[in-house]
Design a protein that fits this description.
Structural class: alpha/beta
Oligomer: single chain
Number of domains: 3
Strand content: 5-15%
CATH topology of the largest domain: Aspartate Aminotransferase, domain 2
Radius of gyration: 23 Å
CATH superfamily of the largest domain: Type I PLP-dependent aspartate aminotransferase-like (Major domain)
Bound molecules: pyridoxal-5'-phosphate
Number of strands: 14
Strand order of the largest sheet: 3-10-9-8-7-4-5-6
Length: 469
């Protein structure tokens, strides 16, 4: 058992964060080797004279980041591989067909940061059709187009996207309301920078919420105010703040769709106080059982800022997204982008415009929707058969389900064991401010339908402490 030297500064606050940071540095610096067992939370809490909950929080954070692993009967150890968010131990997806290259120079494997449950199946990236789009751009677009462009994005893409968002998301946008950005994450950062420039911004966020967004929201100047989510989505009665960030089409992580009365109440809240609704439309393309829910922006274009991206439809690595905002705000965001880094890569923007114009985007989405639906159905069937005591929620849309665990199952242990049997999962605890039933997010985008039953059986057997090898 490691004897840890951890220094905390009680005047600074954020003790759990300080403990996590000290441990993270020790692991990164090699002072804590892979496999090292950490003290029990109770013992470390006594040593540091803090409450046990604070140590639990620090450990949970590092488990979620992949620095530590936690197992029943063994306790908490430094992860075997100390790469944060190490690749889950699952079989790699079938290799994509090699793409013919002009040069025979080897392509370096990029560093791998782990597959997120909400990422798409990247082995289905439409390589050939994307290549055709890029080829089209390079053979038709004049050379001047490759100069620094409008920081708001190339006009052709804004034109195509405005049409797409009107058609598919019932949005109320014109090309001049759109700013092309590097994904929802950058879009939110830019909007918050602009909104918090004049005065500190109190931003209501859903509880639970995506942990990955919290640092960027804070860095952009927002003070976060958690608001609970229930069966109807965000509890609008408990809202406070100057603005709110919501995922109305498919709440992350619970998967709840914001109910019609709540949508109406949310818009009333925004109009009554001249407040802004930031709508994160992160996986709205994938809706399986009924017609897509139109975006809020289409109902209140003067109050709602819509952010979306191609991260779920194509690939997160493209870093291509959009912000649709009321004219003044869109202009301020465009200027902020110009001041920050002069805009997004233009060749990809032209390629996406071509892909949209020629129907390639819609075709790809139709194909993937069918495939993901098959995978989701297989996962839901397997869960119903093997784990009837677990509650599966949020299955109508997106690339993940929200799984409330059987009694006695620990979130962190379940998430770790699930990864070992080839499931892409994340515990919900680090995403929550207030207490809730133990749950994990389970992604199905990379789980072929014929493997779902084995994976869930494997999870069940391992969680009951048996050896399935
Ligand atoms: C709820 C939610 N919103 C936004 C994002 C970020 O998306 P993008 O890749 O468009 O920045 C993610 C990423 O996983 C997410 O889970």
């Amino acid at each position: 058992m490691a004897d840890l030297h951890i220094q905390i500064n009680r005047d600074k606050g954020g003790i759990a964060g300080q403990i996590a940071s000290e441990l993270r540095d020790s692991i990164r610096g090699g002072r804590l080797a892979p496999g090292t067992r950490l003290p029990a939370t109770r013992d470390l809490a006594t040593d540091l004279q803090v409450s046990r909950g604070v140590v639990v929080e620090a450990y949970e954070q590092l488990v979620a980041e992949g620095f530590l692993v936690s197992r029943v009967g063994v306790g908490t150890q430094v992860a075997p591989k100390t790469t944060p968010r190490a690749a889950p131990r699952q079989k790699p997806s079938p290799r994509p067909k090699p793409v013919r290259r002009a040069s025979s120079a080897p392509v370096c494997a990029p560093p791998y940061y782990g597959h997120r449950p909400t990422s798409p199946d990247l082995s289905h990236f439409p390589r050939e059709r994307w290549l055709a789009a890029v080829r089209h751009v390079l053979t038709t677009v004049p050379s001047e187009a490759f100069d620094y462009g409008d920081p708001g994005g190339v006009p052709e893409l804004r034109e195509e996207l405005a049409g797409y968002l009107r058609r598919v998301r019932a949005a109320d946008v014109r090309p001049e309301n759109l700013v092309i950005v590097g994904g929802v994450a950058q879009g939110l950062s830019l909007v918050l920078h602009v909104l918090s420039r004049q005065r500190p911004l109190r931003l209501a966020v859903e509880d639970p919420t995506s942990q990955r967004q919290v640092p960027l929201l804070r860095r952009a100047g927002a003070h976060l105010v958690p608001v609970p989510v229930d069966e109807e989505g965000l509890d609008v009665r408990k809202l406070s703040g100057d603005a709110v960030l919501v995922t109305p089409a498919h709440q992350y992580p619970t998967g709840v769709v914001l109910s019609p009365p709540r949508r109406a109440a949310l818009m009333e809240w925004a109009y009554a106080g001249n407040r802004v609704i930031l709508e994160d439309d992160y996986d709205a393309e994938f809706r399986f059982d009924r017609d897509p829910v139109g975006c809020l922006q289409g109902l209140a274009p003067g109050r709602v800022v819509l952010s979306g991206s191609v991260s779920k439809a194509l690939a997160p690595g493209l870093r291509l997204g959009w912000v649709a905002a009321p004219p003044d705000l869109a202009e301020a965001v465009r200027r902020a982008r110009g001041e920050l880094d002069l805009g997004s890569p233009v060749i990809e923007q032209y390629a996406l415009a071509h892909f949209l114009r020629t129907g390639g985007y819609d075709k790809h989405l139709r194909r993937m929707r069918r495939e993901y639906r098959r995978r989701r159905d297989a996962l839901v069937r397997a869960l119903a058969q093997e784990l009837p005591e677990a509650r599966v929620r949020g299955i109508e849309a997106g690339l993940h389900v929200y799984l409330e665990l059987p009694d006695g199952w620990d979130e962190l242990v379940t998430a770790h064991v699930a990864q070992e049997v080839g499931l892409s999962t994340e515990p919900v605890a680090p995403m929550r401010e207030s207490a809730g039933a133990a749950a994990v997010v389970v992604g199905f985008s990379r789980l072929p339908a014929h493997k779902a039953l084995d994976a869930i059986r494997g999870l069940k057997v391992r969680m009951s402490g048996q050896n399935v090898d």
